[in-house]
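Structure ticket #2291
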Amino acid sequence: MRGAPGEVMKPQPSVAEKYAGIMGVDKGSIQNGRLYAFIDQWMGTPYKFGGEDKNGVDCSGLAQLLEQQVYGISIPRSTGEQVAVIKRKYEDELAEGDLVFFDYDGKKFSHVGVYLQNGFLVHASSTKGVIIIPLHDPYMYKHFSRAGSVIAGDNNMAEQTPK
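Resolution: structure written out below.
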């Protein structure tokens, strides 16, 4: 995709239509072509713990790559470090690009996804690979623990673009 990370590019009509359908929104609300092109490239990539490429990616690797390639923001690699660089938000305040954390197997912040819009997020599922799901998915939501926007700090790039 042309342009620099952080620069919002108009989405391809077919990509806008596809993701509008998945999330139940009007095609016109799919504004960030860079984000949805990134998701389209990674959709269905299998889950692989520690993975960071199309052969397999884990949740925090996907979040790190998305934040870097879509928004030009550097975040740490692990969920435990990622949760430390967010400004907490209430669920109804979530905006595109915010990080959403879950607690699995009694471990705090053991899973992360990236919020999109209309209550949907993209994440690397350990069973289904990279998928888009509703935050209120019955299985996922009971593990929801924290969410927020990435904030400037030592772990991030100085030149951040607002989301």
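Closing remark: Confidence is low (pLDDT under 50) at residues 154-163.
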